[in-house]
Amino acid sequence: MSESRPPLPPFTAETAAQKARMAEDAWNSRDPARVALAYTTDSRWRNRAEFLQGREAIQAFLTRKWSRELDYRLIKEVWAFHGNRIAVRFAYEWHDDSGSWFRSYGNENWEFDEHGLMRLRIASINDLPIAEAERKYHWPLGRRPDDHPILSELGL
């Protein structure tokens, strides 16, 4: 029996937004094992200048990421969708171990298999140093509250 991660393609505006929110929620958990389960066992990634393949590599990457990017909080927003593909834009805030804060902006292109698992993720990301007073994400660690503004509402 194959794994399944509804909603399944082809996506509608509603199911693409649901898929993006599910991804955001998982990433905000900062649980590499949980996040890796959303990807096919042979999923391919480009993340900045890193190229990964497979869940084990994804889990190891995320473990490294969240050991450096502390107090990580993320918002994703659908940019476009068609068939089994979704494009999202995102911004996340984090600080390093010296207390310097950053807002990282990016775009992701996602491609899903027929079971709703992501088989391809292409991410382009830029980091902007910010002062702690410039932070816009102040919810407790974990899932973004439903009433928290999204990127468009924050002017990001």
From TrEMBL:
Please give the Pfam families that the UniProt record associates with this protein: DUF1348
InterPro entries from the xrefs?
DUF1348, NTF2-like_dom_sf
- Source species, domain of life: Bacteria
Q: Which Gene3D superfamilies does this chain map to?
A: 3.10.450.50
Name the PANTHER family for this protein: SLL0781 PROTEIN
Supply the name of the protein. Answer: DUF1348 family protein
